[in-house]
Specification:
With 452 residues, the protein is α/β, with parallel strands linked by helices. The chain has 15 helices and 13 strands. The radius of gyration is 29 Å and the shape is flat. The structure holds guanosine-5'-diphosphate and magnesium ion (MG).
Length: 452
């Protein structure tokens, strides 16, 4: 399989010390380069069979050894990039790896750009765009569930759904275009009914896919859980208790936490970003006032707000005023310092951040709320923000087309409706990469690390 591409190389393993460092070379010249830099018993790498490996040495131009290494031989199209590929496994260490890479570059390979191997995998038809994006999701996954979802997407769960939808919508467009050849008078009044029903079903599937965004967002970006409440209710203590270590400064001096502090943890398969905030109170001034302004911003962007009150006192008018501004679906009222209170509290959850009492129920409630907002998708496809905006655009066109088709007046502009469906198809195509442009590929692949 001939490739239009040059030969690229990069260190594929993470920088720093490790057991091995992998230098990956992909492209038409990779075997010439391997023969030049790698010394091993006959035959040389270029003469070896695909899927084999050989032990030898990476050598300088003058034959001086650089490292003991294993060399893996992969031949197009049976490699990640679908090109001829060689991987050299040397000793893990930044200096050794960099020297091997330099040797390979001196032989005429070019330093790979971020994500360029995966980009080639896409351009050579091995992965579609949602699968390429899943590679990055998998690398970045911060919980088991996020990794499982990324793997499903890598295996094509999302592509299959988008492609099936694409084909159905293409069928609708085709039916419509077929009727364009007839004049209005020739078309029987109900000939378009099945087409209308099919388009309606496509819209339902578009909506179902769009509904998976929240799950996708929570798994990819993590759920932002903001701890808010009056000064001294124990917000910082709660953050420390949930994280399991002293992260935020706890003090009985109100107004101690002025900046927001973030910590990550995993709960119920969701990566969480836990945010401790400055307490909200009316009397604040100066730096503290700024802290409160940030808290309000954090609250607006939060997936969940843990609003703390003191169990003994209950919410006061100021708390009530604040709570009224928050979305109840996203808010859990937590009564803290239950150890100090004899009375049973009336809030969602009662805890003592000091003794740890009730934290189990709080964790369970958090997961329950996240699950409500993000039901585990049945077909193991949860979309990203990029997919969401394209699906939303496709839905807009499909919905407009449906309105147009349902208009039974003889003046309905079928050619315009057909064009709307073509636009919707184009948006779907941009999700999987049937349609793409350089800027789109740049934004997707520039987020990758070099060597992937
Ligand atoms: N008795 C008791 N004291 C607590 C509890 N949580 C926090 N505190 C105390 O309340 C004070 C303020 O806590 P802090 O976490 O700094 O409150 P923040 O201003 O809301 O961040 C500190 O003296 C904590 O030790 C609790 O559950 N029980
Ligand atoms: Mg604090």
């Amino acid at each position: 399989m001939a490739s239009d591409f040059d030969t690229i190389a990069a260190i594929a393993t993470a920088p720093g010390e490790g057991g091995v460092a992998i230098i990956r070379i992909s492209g038409p010249r990779c075997f010439d380069i391997a023969d030049a830099v790698f010394s091993c018993p006959e035959p040389p790498p270029s003469q070896r069979a695909a899927g084999t490996f050989v032990y030898g040495r990476v050598i300088e131009a003058d034959g001086v050894p650089l490292d003991d290494a294993l060399l893996l031989v992969m031949r197009a199209p049976r490699s990640y990039t679908r090109e001829d590929t060689v991987e050299i496994q040397g000793h893990g260490g930044p200096i050794v790896a960099r020297r091997i890479l330099q040797r390979v570059l001196d032989q005429g390979a070019r330093s790979a750009e971020p994500g360029e191997f995966t980009k080639r995998a896409f351009l050579n038809g091995r992965l579609d765009l949602t699968q390429a994006e899943a590679v990055l999701d998998l690398i970045r996954a911060r919980s088991d569930r996020a990794a499982a979802a990324a793997l499903d997407q890598l295996e094509g769960a999302l592509s299959r759904r988008i492609n099936a939808l694409y084909d159905r919508l293409l069928g609708v467009a085709g039916n419509l275009e077929a009727t364009l050849d007839f004049s209005e008078q020739e078309i029987p009044s109900n000939v378009l009914d099945p087409t209308i029903d099919e388009l309606d079903a496509c819209l339902a599937e578009l909506n179902a896919l769009l509904a998976t965004w929240n799950e996708g967002h929570l798994l990819r970006e993590g759920a932002t859980v903001v701890i808010a409440g009056k000064p001294n209710v124990g917000k910082s203590t709660l953050l420390n208790a949930l994280v399991g270590r002293e992260r935020a400064i706890v003090s009985d001096q109100p107004g101690t936490t002025r900046d927001t502090i973030e910590e990550t943890l995993v709960l119920g398969g969701y990566p969480l970003i836990l945010v401790d905030t400055a307490g909200i109170r009316e009397t604040a001034c100066g730096v503290e006032r700024e802290g409160i302004r940030r808290t309000e911003q954090e609250l607006a962007e939060a997936d969940i707000c843990l609003y703390l009150i003191e169990a003994e006192k209950g919410p006061d008018p100021e708390d009530r005023a604040l709570l009224a501004k928050l979305d109840p679906r996203k808010t859990i009222v937590v009564a803290n310092k239950s150890d100090k209170s004899a009375t049973v509290c009336s809030s969602d959850i009662c805890v003592s951040s000091l003794t740890g009492d009730g934290l189990g129920s709080l964790r369970a409630e958090l997961v329950r709320r996240l699950d409500t907002g993000a039901p585990h998708s049945t077909q193991h496809a949860s979309i990203s923000t990029r997919h969401k905006s394209l699906l939303a655009a496709a839905r807009e066109d499909a919905a407009a087309a449906l309105v147009g088709l349902r208009d039974s007046s003889s003046a309905r502009p079928l050619d315009l409706i057909a064009a709307q469906l073509r636009d919707a198809l184009e948006y779907l195509g941009l999700i999987t990469g049937r349609v793409y442009h350089d800027a789109l590929l740049d934004t997707i692949f520039s987020r990758f690390c070099i060597g992937k």
